[in-house]
Specification:
- Strands 2-8-7-6-5-3-4 form a seven-stranded mixed sheet, sandwiched between helices.
- Strand 5, helix 6 and strand 6 form a beta-alpha-beta unit.
- The protein is globular.
- It is an alpha/beta fold and 393 residues long.
- Helix 1 runs antiparallel to helix 7, helix 3 runs parallel beside helix 4 and helix 9 packs parallel to helix 14.
- It is built from 14 helices and twelve strands.
- The structure holds 4'-deoxy-4'-aminopyridoxal-5'-phosphate.
- 4'-deoxy-4'-aminopyridoxal-5'-phosphate (PMP) binds next to helix 3 and helix 11.
Length: 393
Amino acid sequence: MKVPIYSGLFFYPLSLLSIRITLKKPIYFDYASTTPVHPNVLKAMMPYFTEEFGNAGSSQHYFGWAADEAVESARKKISSYFGLAARQLVFTSGATESNNLAIQGYLQGKEPGHLITSSIEHKAVLQVFQYLERLGWSVTYLNPNSFGCIDIASVENAIQPNTVLVSLMAVNNETGNMTDFQSIAKLCKQNGICYHTDATQAIGKIDLRTCSNLPDLISFSGHKIYGPKGIGALLINTDAAMKSIMFGGGQERILRPGTVAVQQVVALAACFDLMSALVDSIPRINRFKHKILHELMADHIVNSADNQSVPHIISLSIPHLDWEELYRKIPAIAVSNGSACNAKSQLPSHVMKALGHTDALALATIRISLSYLHEESDIDFLIEYLNSQLPHR
Ligand code: PMP
């Protein structure tokens, strides 16, 4: 395949120049950052912007009833996917809010004790723990093993008599590395500890219907599974009392006050109609991943664990290249060097640092994230492009 010539295409990182002029759209390989809204999802949500625009809390008239019915049927559909009851799901604005509500909502009102998380969590978890430390909680931050994964043994060793909650993500957003969340759920249950997992990058990438040991609290977001931005959910698989971290109306059983975003909720439910297709596409994406790793000649270090990562996320660090130079060399592909949430800060990723990389290597990282939307020709282009643009060993 011939690599197109991007004549007149300039890509300057923000730190160099505040203007980026792109004359041709690159090919998107950043699906872990966000996904396009699937046409069926868009179709499902549209009526709730216009003809069915009611407030689900308006219990006196048709418009409210129609909105409420849509919200409750969405709640039932999503919760039943996980084998849970409708009352065990709270709609939020996304995974950031779900993580905050899960951790703070569970701990609110409790005497400060001990908590366990890891150094490779998303900032939406890490920063909550840093806040909790300021409130008097003691926190153990587990470090990844040499494969970049969190070992169950390290969780077991970290448990103290006063450990109240463990929060460990199911799939890391930067490396795709998986945590054995089912074993951790079992371990926590045996020890009477609440287990929260940020499953934002796991949904649609792992078949969660086959999981027998679900964590007590599960967070996720719609825009990673072909839904719109601004909608997510928290699954509450525990009888323990949860408290609101916001004050307002009594929506979402008081746990998430505020008018429910009916069209977003309907869209999130429509994403679950795509789930079988997403799960069915895993073997094909796995084949793409192996093809990339097998045919990539450019000098690189693979940050994604061999047998313990989802195939959708491939993290590569490129030695001996300054990150700005690296990104200037590959304008025809849209990849990121970590979490989009950190991108604007241009600091080395805390995940790459936890893997032991220097600042320079952590920054010179490309995360390729794949989708069922990719064609074989996209993968061929990616391989040929990286091989032609980057230095070889
Ligand atoms: N957790 C993980 C693992 C993520 O990948 C993201 C999105 N990058 C978030 C949380 C935050 O999700 P949202 O932006 O939808 O709040």
